[in-house]
């Protein structure tokens, strides 16, 4: 397996966690909603990669657990 897949999956997972966490502390309601939507999109990317990797039986280490983030 290429290390690219582990890096791509981990990056999307971590990005989703960071963006979702930022949405949680944003004071402006409209900006909070926009940031939350972006966090959902990043989480979708992570889930899509997970599905692809599972379907093609590409082994990758699971990303680290990120507390307080629903991804």
Overview of the structural elements:
- By secondary structure, this protein is mainly alpha-helical.
- The chain has 2 helices and no strands.
- It has helices at residues 3-25, 29-55.
- α1 (3-25) runs antiparallel to α2 (29-55).
- The longest helix has 27 residues, at 29-55.
- The protein is elongated.
- It starts with a helix and ends in a 16-residue tail after the last helix.
- The mean pLDDT is 89.
Average pLDDT reading: 89
Per DSSP, the total helix count is 2
Beta-strand portion reads: under 5%
Query: What's the total count of β strands?
Result: 0
What pattern of helices and strands is seen along the backbone? HH
Overall 3D shape: elongated
Q: Give start-end ranges of low-pLDDT stretches.
A: none
Q: Roughly how many Å is the radius of gyration?
A: 13 Å
Could you write a compact summary of the structure shown?
The protein is an all-alpha fold. It has helices at 3-25, 29-55.
Features:
elongated, mainly alpha, 0% strand, 71 residues
What is the topological layout?
Layout: H1 3-25, H2 29-55
Helix pairs in contact: 1-2
């Amino acid at each position: 397996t290429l290390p690219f897949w582990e890096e791509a999956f981990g990056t999307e997972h971590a990005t989703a966690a960071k963006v979702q966490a930022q949405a949680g502390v944003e004071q402006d309601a409209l900006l909070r909603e926009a940031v939350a939507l972006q966090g959902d999109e990043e989480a979708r990317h992570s889930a899509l990669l997970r599905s692809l990797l599972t379907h093609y039986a590409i082994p990758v280490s699971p990303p680290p657990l990120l507390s307080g983030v629903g991804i």
